[in-house]
Amino acid sequence: MVRYGRRMDYMRVLFGTDGVRGVANQELTVHLALRLARAAATVLRRQGDGRPRVVIGRDTRVSGDMIEAAMIAGFCSAGADVLSAGVIPTAGIAYLARELDVDMGAVISASHNPFEFNGIKFFSHQGFKLPDDVELAIEAKVESTEHLDHPLGADLGRRLPDPGLIRQYIDELRRLAPPSLAGLKLVIDCANGAASAIAPALFRELGAEVITIHDTPDGMNINDGCGATHPEVVGRAVVEHGADAGLSFDGDSDRLMMTDERGRVLDGDHMLAIAARAMLDAGTYRGGDVVGTVMSNLGLERTLAGMGLRLARANVGDRYVLEMMQELDVPLGGEQSGHLIFLNHSTTGDGLITALMMLGILRNSGERLSTLADIMPTFPQKLINIPIAAGARWNENATILRAIADAETDLGADGRVLVRASGTEPKIRVMVEALRTEQVARWTERIAGVIVAELGG
To answer: Which positions are annotated as active-site residues?
Structure first.
């Protein structure tokens, strides 16, 4: 049956599925960053707790300094003190938001996007990404200054740099890590991003032999032909160095892609299957579901069924994965793109925690990573992204809907069609999955061609 991606952000102007994002100094201006900070400080301030406090961090983009300065000014002008962690993975701010006595966490990052983009996302004082209604409330405050705080004198906020915040996050990672990774040889691609100053040292401390690539950020090389969006790069390095595994992080280190010792890419679906099997074998899995998304491969669905588990499909976006995990009360969920959430350990996707969990499984199993990955067969799948004009009503176009219906009929029970609007870009995403590669290519290109003809993509 065809699945249309559910748009939770149909009323949104600023927030997409993962915060506010755009080209820095064009869509994401200093003015907007300042107003977002002021609005967030007003909406997220806990009542009766005195002066609000915020912990803020960023990735390595050249625009990060500019946007961070604007946000700190906005927070301070709303009477909030700001704890500045500097360059740190997104999940590090989520962790600090729940561990420190703060009202919220703020991250400046555009994740896997090119360096000219940047973004802003917020976490509650419990370390969770904000629900839709709270983000909409912040949007409303951005548009109107009527109800924003305007403190004076001693009530203004201050910036409080604290270099120890990063160490606090690293200590938490060490606490969650396996006792030792001695004997494992790893290639780590840091995407010239937030993991660059943390990941190599962490895995060496655990005893692994580490070869690093793309760990020299200059503000403009983040995600540039490297990292989680180009896992084949680390795959080639794994084969070249005879390593046991490759780890590819993205710019803010909230997602991870792996490669086995053959250089074969393991995406989030493979890692979910491996983790679910390990947790079941250890007797630590609760519930009968693993949460994926509408993009999760049919191979994962059938592999989990063989374990007695059901794949529950959430909308794309790790915030929606988390919501479903909480609703079903299960500890494991994630996206094909490498956002995995181990809810017993983190409130959001954390590529470093995912790496620690997966390497712990690898070490304990005594198997090669390729053997563990073979638990899941992969159905051929193709995704095409089609740029369109903002607001184009593709899902009301009879010709497009007829093309989708024709594909659905042809594929039957052994295939899927997913057409959805991106939550972060003005694009339509067309995905087709089937038993035969020929069917996948034919129907993906046919549907995409119809969309281009109808909407001018």
So the answer is: 111
Selected from 3.40.630.30, 3.40.120.10, 3.40.109.10, 3.30.470.20, the CATH number assigned to the domain covering 13-168 reads 3.40.120.10
CA dist 208 and 200 (Å) reads: 10
- Asked if residue 246 lies in contact with residue 262, where contact means CB atoms within 8 angstroms, the answer is no
Q: Each residue of 280-300: pLDDT tens digit?
A: 999 999 999 999 999 999 999
CATH topology of domain 177-373: Alpha-D-Glucose-1,6-Bisphosphate; Chain A, domain 3 (3.40.120)
Query: What burial class does residue 150 get, using C-beta atoms within 10 Å of its C-beta: 0-12 exposed, 13-18 middle, 19+ buried?
Result: exposed
CA atoms of 22 and 24, how far apart (whole Å): 6
CA atoms within a 13 Å half-sphere pointing along the CA-CB vector of 182: 2
d(CA 147, CA 201): 46
- The highest-confidence range among 42-46, 57-61, 447-451, by mean pLDDT, is 57-61
Quick: pLDDT tens for 24-46: 999 999 999 999 999 999 888 87
The answer to pTM > 0.85 is yes
CB 376 within 8 A of CB 300: yes
pLDDT digit string, tens, across residues 208-236: 999 999 999 999 999 999 999 999 999 99
Q: Contact 138/43 with Cβ under 8 angstroms?
A: yes
The residue written with tokens 């919501």 in the block is 323
Contact call for residues 83 and 164 (beta carbons, < 8 A): no
Minimal CA–CA distance to 443: which of 387, 292, 412, 397? 412
**What's the distance, Cα to Cα, between the start and end of the chain in Å?**
25
Residues of the chain with CATH 3.40.120.10: 13-168, 177-373
Locate 360 and state its tokens: 């712990």
**How many Cβ atoms from other residues are within 10 Å of residue 151's Cβ?**
14
Half-sphere exposure of 347 (CA within 13 A, CB side): 19
Which of 144-158, 215-229, 261-275, 382-396 bottoms out in mean pLDDT, i.e. has the lowest? Answer: 144-158
Query: Phi and psi dihedrals of 65, rounded to 5?
Result: -60, -45
Q: Which residues partner with 383 through β-bridges?
A: 431
Sheet with 289-293: list strands edge to edge.
310-314, 289-293, 332-334, 340-342
Q: How confident is the model at residue 10 (pLDDT cuts 50, 70, 90)?
A: very low
CATH class of 381-455: alpha beta
